[in-house]
Design brief:
The protein has 412 residues and is of the alpha/beta class. 47% of the residues lie in helices and 10% in strands. Belongs to the iron-containing alcohol dehydrogenase family.
Length: 412
Protein backbone atom coordinates (compact mmCIF):
# COMPACT_ATOMS: atom_id res chain seq x y z
CA UNK A 1 0.00 0.00 0.00
CA UNK A 2 1.28 3.52 -0.72
CA UNK A 3 2.13 5.74 2.22
CA UNK A 4 -0.95 7.95 2.85
CA UNK A 5 0.99 10.37 5.03
CA UNK A 6 3.44 11.74 2.44
CA UNK A 7 6.61 10.87 4.25
CA UNK A 8 5.34 9.40 7.52
CA UNK A 9 7.54 6.33 7.16
CA UNK A 10 11.02 5.80 8.48
CA UNK A 11 14.07 3.60 8.56
CA UNK A 12 17.04 3.58 10.92
CA UNK A 13 20.33 1.73 10.51
CA UNK A 14 22.70 2.66 13.32
CA UNK A 15 25.58 1.25 15.35
CA UNK A 16 24.54 -0.99 18.23
CA UNK A 17 26.35 1.43 20.55
CA UNK A 18 26.76 5.19 20.23
CA UNK A 19 28.57 7.02 23.04
CA UNK A 20 28.95 10.80 23.12
CA UNK A 21 30.66 13.15 25.55
CA UNK A 22 33.94 14.36 26.99
CA UNK A 23 35.82 11.30 28.16
CA UNK A 24 33.70 8.84 26.14
CA UNK A 25 36.85 7.32 24.64
CA UNK A 26 37.35 5.49 27.95
CA UNK A 27 34.69 3.08 26.63
CA UNK A 28 37.01 1.88 23.86
CA UNK A 29 38.44 -1.27 25.52
CA UNK A 30 34.95 -2.60 26.18
CA UNK A 31 33.50 -1.55 22.82
CA UNK A 32 36.41 -3.10 20.90
CA UNK A 33 37.12 -6.14 23.05
CA UNK A 34 33.69 -7.70 22.70
CA UNK A 35 34.44 -8.34 19.01
CA UNK A 36 37.78 -10.13 19.37
CA UNK A 37 41.36 -9.89 20.52
CA UNK A 38 43.26 -8.82 17.40
CA UNK A 39 42.68 -5.14 16.66
CA UNK A 40 43.79 -3.30 13.53
CA UNK A 41 43.79 0.42 14.38
CA UNK A 42 43.33 2.42 11.16
CA UNK A 43 44.41 5.95 12.09
CA UNK A 44 45.12 9.28 10.45
CA UNK A 45 48.88 9.70 9.96
CA UNK A 46 48.98 12.88 12.06
CA UNK A 47 47.88 10.87 15.12
CA UNK A 48 50.96 8.64 15.08
CA UNK A 49 53.22 9.29 18.06
CA UNK A 50 50.63 11.54 19.72
CA UNK A 51 49.78 11.08 23.41
CA UNK A 52 46.19 10.27 22.48
CA UNK A 53 47.14 7.33 20.30
CA UNK A 54 49.72 6.12 22.80
CA UNK A 55 47.13 6.25 25.57
CA UNK A 56 44.53 4.48 23.42
CA UNK A 57 46.85 1.65 22.43
CA UNK A 58 48.01 1.38 26.04
CA UNK A 59 44.44 1.07 27.32
CA UNK A 60 43.59 -1.60 24.76
CA UNK A 61 46.78 -3.53 25.49
CA UNK A 62 46.10 -3.36 29.22
CA UNK A 63 42.70 -4.91 28.51
CA UNK A 64 44.44 -7.92 26.94
CA UNK A 65 44.04 -6.91 23.30
CA UNK A 66 46.69 -7.19 20.59
CA UNK A 67 46.86 -3.93 18.58
CA UNK A 68 48.52 -3.19 15.26
CA UNK A 69 48.49 0.42 14.03
CA UNK A 70 48.01 1.10 10.31
CA UNK A 71 48.43 4.75 9.33
CA UNK A 72 49.22 4.72 5.61
CA UNK A 73 46.00 6.58 4.79
CA UNK A 74 46.09 8.69 1.63
CA UNK A 75 43.63 11.60 1.32
CA UNK A 76 40.79 10.97 -1.15
CA UNK A 77 41.40 7.20 -0.72
CA UNK A 78 42.83 6.01 -4.06
CA UNK A 79 41.47 2.53 -4.61
CA UNK A 80 44.86 0.83 -4.97
CA UNK A 81 45.97 1.98 -1.51
CA UNK A 82 42.99 0.21 0.02
CA UNK A 83 43.96 -3.10 -1.59
CA UNK A 84 47.33 -2.82 0.14
CA UNK A 85 45.71 -1.97 3.47
CA UNK A 86 43.31 -4.89 3.22
CA UNK A 87 46.19 -7.27 2.52
CA UNK A 88 47.84 -6.04 5.72
CA UNK A 89 44.63 -6.60 7.69
CA UNK A 90 44.16 -10.11 6.32
CA UNK A 91 47.76 -11.09 7.03
CA UNK A 92 47.38 -9.83 10.58
CA UNK A 93 44.10 -11.70 11.06
CA UNK A 94 42.16 -8.73 12.40
CA UNK A 95 39.06 -9.60 14.43
CA UNK A 96 37.95 -5.98 14.66
CA UNK A 97 38.96 -2.70 13.04
CA UNK A 98 39.28 0.43 15.13
CA UNK A 99 38.93 3.56 12.98
CA UNK A 100 40.34 6.78 14.44
CA UNK A 101 40.51 10.07 12.54
CA UNK A 102 38.64 12.19 10.04
CA UNK A 103 36.35 11.05 7.27
CA UNK A 104 39.12 9.53 5.17
CA UNK A 105 40.34 7.29 7.99
CA UNK A 106 36.82 6.18 8.88
CA UNK A 107 35.91 5.46 5.26
CA UNK A 108 39.21 3.63 4.76
CA UNK A 109 38.41 1.41 7.74
CA UNK A 110 35.00 0.56 6.30
CA UNK A 111 36.48 -0.43 2.96
CA UNK A 112 39.32 -2.41 4.54
CA UNK A 113 36.72 -4.28 6.60
CA UNK A 114 34.76 -4.98 3.42
CA UNK A 115 37.76 -6.26 1.47
CA UNK A 116 38.86 -8.42 4.40
CA UNK A 117 35.49 -10.13 4.55
CA UNK A 118 34.60 -10.46 0.88
CA UNK A 119 37.73 -9.80 -1.22
CA UNK A 120 38.24 -7.49 -4.15
CA UNK A 121 38.22 -5.82 -6.48
CA UNK A 122 36.53 -2.93 -4.73
CA UNK A 123 34.75 -2.00 -7.96
CA UNK A 124 32.44 -5.01 -7.40
CA UNK A 125 30.71 -3.02 -4.70
CA UNK A 126 30.38 0.43 -6.33
CA UNK A 127 26.83 1.66 -5.85
CA UNK A 128 24.12 0.48 -3.45
CA UNK A 129 23.37 -2.82 -1.75
CA UNK A 130 26.15 -4.79 -3.45
CA UNK A 131 27.99 -5.83 -0.27
CA UNK A 132 26.88 -9.47 0.16
CA UNK A 133 27.03 -9.74 3.95
CA UNK A 134 28.61 -8.59 7.22
CA UNK A 135 32.10 -7.12 7.17
CA UNK A 136 34.79 -7.22 9.85
CA UNK A 137 33.34 -5.28 12.84
CA UNK A 138 34.27 -1.59 12.88
CA UNK A 139 34.48 0.66 15.94
CA UNK A 140 34.64 4.30 14.80
CA UNK A 141 36.14 7.24 16.70
CA UNK A 142 35.98 10.54 14.77
CA UNK A 143 38.53 13.29 15.47
CA UNK A 144 36.73 15.89 13.36
CA UNK A 145 33.11 17.00 13.52
CA UNK A 146 31.58 16.79 10.07
CA UNK A 147 31.34 13.63 8.00
CA UNK A 148 29.20 11.58 10.37
CA UNK A 149 30.88 8.51 8.88
CA UNK A 150 30.93 6.88 12.32
CA UNK A 151 27.18 6.21 12.01
CA UNK A 152 26.54 5.99 8.25
CA UNK A 153 26.31 3.15 5.71
CA UNK A 154 28.51 4.75 3.04
CA UNK A 155 32.19 5.13 2.16
CA UNK A 156 33.68 7.09 -0.73
CA UNK A 157 36.73 6.16 -2.76
CA UNK A 158 38.75 7.68 -5.65
CA UNK A 159 39.09 5.54 -8.76
CA UNK A 160 41.34 6.79 -11.60
CA UNK A 161 38.98 5.17 -14.12
CA UNK A 162 36.08 7.39 -13.00
CA UNK A 163 35.50 11.12 -13.45
CA UNK A 164 34.17 11.51 -9.92
CA UNK A 165 34.54 9.88 -6.53
CA UNK A 166 32.62 6.65 -6.15
CA UNK A 167 30.36 5.69 -3.25
CA UNK A 168 29.84 2.23 -1.78
CA UNK A 169 26.63 2.10 0.23
CA UNK A 170 25.40 -0.81 2.31
CA UNK A 171 23.86 -1.33 5.74
CA UNK A 172 26.75 -3.73 6.36
CA UNK A 173 29.16 -0.77 6.39
CA UNK A 174 27.55 0.80 9.47
CA UNK A 175 30.08 0.51 12.32
CA UNK A 176 29.14 -1.68 15.28
CA UNK A 177 30.02 1.13 17.68
CA UNK A 178 30.64 4.87 17.46
CA UNK A 179 32.45 6.79 20.18
CA UNK A 180 32.36 10.57 19.81
CA UNK A 181 34.57 12.44 22.26
CA UNK A 182 34.66 16.22 21.58
CA UNK A 183 38.06 16.40 23.29
CA UNK A 184 39.65 14.88 20.21
CA UNK A 185 38.72 17.86 18.01
CA UNK A 186 39.94 20.60 20.36
CA UNK A 187 42.58 22.69 18.64
CA UNK A 188 41.74 21.48 15.12
CA UNK A 189 42.73 24.04 12.47
CA UNK A 190 40.09 26.61 11.64
CA UNK A 191 39.69 25.44 8.04
CA UNK A 192 39.19 21.83 9.10
CA UNK A 193 36.59 22.89 11.66
CA UNK A 194 34.85 25.17 9.17
CA UNK A 195 34.64 22.82 6.21
CA UNK A 196 33.75 19.74 8.25
CA UNK A 197 31.20 21.67 10.29
CA UNK A 198 29.42 23.29 7.36
CA UNK A 199 29.23 19.88 5.66
CA UNK A 200 27.49 18.59 8.79
CA UNK A 201 24.96 21.42 8.46
CA UNK A 202 24.42 20.43 4.82
CA UNK A 203 23.72 16.87 5.99
CA UNK A 204 21.03 18.14 8.35
CA UNK A 205 19.47 20.43 5.75
CA UNK A 206 19.46 17.91 2.92
CA UNK A 207 18.07 15.22 5.21
CA UNK A 208 15.22 17.45 6.33
CA UNK A 209 14.41 18.57 2.78
CA UNK A 210 14.68 15.12 1.16
CA UNK A 211 11.97 13.87 -1.16
CA UNK A 212 9.43 11.41 0.32
CA UNK A 213 9.85 7.94 -1.17
CA UNK A 214 7.04 5.45 -1.80
CA UNK A 215 8.78 2.42 -0.30
CA UNK A 216 8.00 -1.12 -1.39
CA UNK A 217 8.25 -2.97 1.92
CA UNK A 218 8.13 -6.34 0.15
CA UNK A 219 11.40 -5.68 -1.71
CA UNK A 220 14.97 -4.92 -0.66
CA UNK A 221 14.98 -1.30 0.44
CA UNK A 222 17.37 1.24 -1.00
CA UNK A 223 20.16 2.19 1.40
CA UNK A 224 18.90 5.77 1.52
CA UNK A 225 15.13 5.98 1.82
CA UNK A 226 14.27 9.66 1.44
CA UNK A 227 12.22 11.75 3.84
CA UNK A 228 12.13 9.97 7.14
CA UNK A 229 9.73 10.49 10.01
CA UNK A 230 12.19 8.92 12.45
CA UNK A 231 14.95 11.45 11.79
CA UNK A 232 13.17 14.71 10.95
CA UNK A 233 13.53 15.86 14.55
CA UNK A 234 17.14 14.67 14.65
CA UNK A 235 17.97 16.76 11.58
CA UNK A 236 16.44 19.84 13.19
CA UNK A 237 18.40 19.23 16.39
CA UNK A 238 21.57 18.91 14.36
CA UNK A 239 20.92 22.27 12.74
CA UNK A 240 20.22 23.80 16.14
CA UNK A 241 23.56 22.63 17.52
CA UNK A 242 25.57 23.70 14.47
CA UNK A 243 24.09 27.03 13.43
CA UNK A 244 24.84 29.06 16.58
CA UNK A 245 28.06 27.28 17.56
CA UNK A 246 30.06 26.55 14.42
CA UNK A 247 31.31 30.15 13.96
CA UNK A 248 32.52 30.20 17.58
CA UNK A 249 34.29 26.84 17.19
CA UNK A 250 36.12 28.26 14.18
CA UNK A 251 37.07 31.50 15.97
CA UNK A 252 37.92 29.86 19.30
CA UNK A 253 39.32 26.37 18.60
CA UNK A 254 39.75 25.53 22.29
CA UNK A 255 36.25 26.55 23.40
CA UNK A 256 34.96 23.36 25.00
CA UNK A 257 31.25 24.21 24.80
CA UNK A 258 31.51 25.10 21.12
CA UNK A 259 33.39 21.87 20.38
CA UNK A 260 30.76 19.86 22.22
CA UNK A 261 27.88 21.51 20.37
CA UNK A 262 29.47 21.11 16.94
CA UNK A 263 30.42 17.48 17.63
CA UNK A 264 26.85 16.74 18.70
CA UNK A 265 25.49 18.47 15.58
CA UNK A 266 27.80 16.49 13.32
CA UNK A 267 26.84 13.20 14.97
CA UNK A 268 23.12 13.95 14.69
CA UNK A 269 23.57 15.10 11.09
CA UNK A 270 25.22 11.78 10.29
CA UNK A 271 22.38 9.85 11.92
CA UNK A 272 19.89 11.88 9.87
CA UNK A 273 21.44 11.65 6.42
CA UNK A 274 22.59 8.06 6.96
CA UNK A 275 18.92 7.14 6.69
CA UNK A 276 17.55 9.70 4.24
CA UNK A 277 20.52 10.45 1.98
CA UNK A 278 21.72 13.79 0.63
CA UNK A 279 20.88 15.56 -2.59
CA UNK A 280 21.79 18.57 -4.73
CA UNK A 281 24.65 20.17 -2.76
CA UNK A 282 26.44 16.84 -2.84
CA UNK A 283 25.56 16.06 -6.45
CA UNK A 284 27.05 19.42 -7.47
CA UNK A 285 30.07 19.24 -5.18
CA UNK A 286 31.44 16.01 -6.60
CA UNK A 287 32.23 17.49 -10.03
CA UNK A 288 33.14 20.87 -8.50
CA UNK A 289 35.58 19.21 -6.12
CA UNK A 290 37.08 17.08 -8.89
CA UNK A 291 37.62 20.16 -11.03
CA UNK A 292 39.02 22.48 -8.36
CA UNK A 293 40.67 19.99 -5.97
CA UNK A 294 38.96 21.76 -3.09
CA UNK A 295 37.73 20.10 0.14
CA UNK A 296 34.38 18.37 0.10
CA UNK A 297 32.86 20.49 2.86
CA UNK A 298 33.97 23.72 1.22
CA UNK A 299 32.02 22.74 -1.90
CA UNK A 300 28.85 21.53 -0.22
CA UNK A 301 28.82 24.53 2.11
CA UNK A 302 29.41 26.99 -0.71
CA UNK A 303 26.50 25.52 -2.69
CA UNK A 304 24.04 25.29 0.23
CA UNK A 305 22.54 28.80 0.14
CA UNK A 306 22.24 28.73 -3.67
CA UNK A 307 20.55 25.32 -3.69
CA UNK A 308 18.07 26.30 -0.98
CA UNK A 309 17.44 29.64 -2.69
CA UNK A 310 16.51 27.88 -5.92
CA UNK A 311 14.38 25.21 -4.24
CA UNK A 312 12.36 27.57 -2.03
CA UNK A 313 10.04 28.35 -4.95
CA UNK A 314 8.46 25.01 -4.00
CA UNK A 315 6.00 25.65 -1.17
CA UNK A 316 6.86 22.50 0.79
CA UNK A 317 10.60 23.14 0.55
CA UNK A 318 10.08 26.78 1.55
CA UNK A 319 8.16 25.70 4.66
CA UNK A 320 10.81 23.19 5.64
CA UNK A 321 13.59 25.68 4.97
CA UNK A 322 11.89 28.17 7.28
CA UNK A 323 11.60 25.49 9.99
CA UNK A 324 15.31 24.77 9.62
CA UNK A 325 16.03 28.47 9.97
CA UNK A 326 14.08 28.66 13.22
CA UNK A 327 16.27 25.83 14.56
CA UNK A 328 19.50 27.40 13.31
CA UNK A 329 18.74 30.79 14.82
CA UNK A 330 16.81 29.64 17.87
CA UNK A 331 13.84 31.84 17.03
CA UNK A 332 10.07 31.21 17.16
CA UNK A 333 8.78 29.55 13.99
CA UNK A 334 6.53 32.52 13.33
CA UNK A 335 9.56 34.75 12.88
CA UNK A 336 11.27 32.41 10.43
CA UNK A 337 11.10 32.38 6.64
CA UNK A 338 12.89 30.54 3.86
CA UNK A 339 14.49 33.78 2.70
CA UNK A 340 15.78 34.53 6.20
CA UNK A 341 17.19 30.99 6.47
CA UNK A 342 19.09 31.33 3.19
CA UNK A 343 20.51 34.68 4.28
CA UNK A 344 21.58 33.28 7.66
CA UNK A 345 23.38 30.34 6.08
CA UNK A 346 25.17 32.72 3.72
CA UNK A 347 26.29 34.75 6.75
CA UNK A 348 27.54 31.62 8.53
CA UNK A 349 29.59 30.79 5.44
CA UNK A 350 31.06 34.28 5.46
CA UNK A 351 31.83 34.10 9.19
CA UNK A 352 33.72 30.79 8.92
CA UNK A 353 35.60 31.51 5.70
CA UNK A 354 33.69 29.49 3.10
CA UNK A 355 34.20 31.23 -0.29
CA UNK A 356 31.15 33.11 -1.52
CA UNK A 357 31.26 32.06 -5.17
CA UNK A 358 32.47 29.37 -7.55
CA UNK A 359 34.61 32.00 -9.26
CA UNK A 360 36.49 32.40 -5.97
CA UNK A 361 37.68 28.77 -6.15
CA UNK A 362 38.73 28.87 -9.79
CA UNK A 363 35.61 27.69 -11.62
CA UNK A 364 35.20 29.37 -15.00
CA UNK A 365 31.80 30.13 -16.47
CA UNK A 366 32.60 27.85 -19.39
CA UNK A 367 32.82 24.93 -16.96
CA UNK A 368 29.23 25.24 -15.75
CA UNK A 369 27.40 23.18 -18.42
CA UNK A 370 29.76 20.24 -17.88
CA UNK A 371 29.33 20.51 -14.11
CA UNK A 372 25.55 20.40 -14.51
CA UNK A 373 25.76 17.34 -16.75
CA UNK A 374 28.01 15.49 -14.31
CA UNK A 375 25.75 16.36 -11.39
CA UNK A 376 22.74 14.99 -13.27
CA UNK A 377 24.65 11.75 -13.61
CA UNK A 378 24.61 11.30 -9.82
CA UNK A 379 21.25 9.59 -10.08
CA UNK A 380 21.08 8.37 -6.47
CA UNK A 381 21.57 11.90 -5.14
CA UNK A 382 19.31 13.50 -7.73
CA UNK A 383 16.52 11.08 -6.80
CA UNK A 384 16.54 12.38 -3.21
CA UNK A 385 16.13 16.04 -4.22
CA UNK A 386 12.74 17.45 -3.16
CA UNK A 387 12.00 18.59 -6.73
CA UNK A 388 12.98 16.80 -9.93
CA UNK A 389 15.98 18.88 -11.03
CA UNK A 390 16.32 19.68 -14.71
CA UNK A 391 19.57 20.60 -16.38
CA UNK A 392 18.23 24.15 -16.58
CA UNK A 393 17.64 24.30 -12.83
CA UNK A 394 21.15 23.04 -12.08
CA UNK A 395 22.63 25.53 -14.52
CA UNK A 396 20.67 28.34 -12.86
CA UNK A 397 22.02 27.30 -9.45
CA UNK A 398 25.56 27.12 -10.82
CA UNK A 399 25.25 30.48 -12.58
CA UNK A 400 24.15 32.18 -9.37
CA UNK A 401 26.84 30.43 -7.38
CA UNK A 402 29.44 31.47 -9.91
CA UNK A 403 28.34 35.09 -9.70
CA UNK A 404 27.89 34.96 -5.93
CA UNK A 405 24.36 36.31 -6.32
CA UNK A 406 21.33 34.95 -4.52
CA UNK A 407 18.02 35.39 -6.29
CA UNK A 408 16.03 38.57 -5.63
CA UNK A 409 12.45 37.41 -5.11
CA UNK A 410 11.33 40.44 -3.16
CA UNK A 411 8.84 41.37 -5.87
CA UNK A 412 7.28 37.91 -6.02
Amino acid sequence: MPDPGNGTVGTLRLPAQVHFGYGARAQLPEAVGVHGRRVLAVVDPFLVRTPFLDDTVGALTAAGLDVRVYSDITPELPVDTLDTAAATARAYGADVILAIGGGSALDAAKLIALLCAHGGPLSRYYGENLVPGPVVPIVAVPTTAGTGSEVTPVAVVSDPTRDLKVGISSPFLVPVAAIVDPELAIGSPATVTAYAGIDALVHAVESYTARPFDLDWSARLPVFTGRNALVDGIALRAAGHLGPWLPLAVREPTDRRARQEVAMGALLGGIAFGSTGTHLCHALQYPIGALTRTPHGLGTGLMLPYVLDALRVDADVAERTATLGAAIEGIPPGEASAERTVARIARINSEIGVPASLADIGVERAHLPRLADLALGSTRLIAIAPVAPSRELLLDILERAHAGALADRSAK
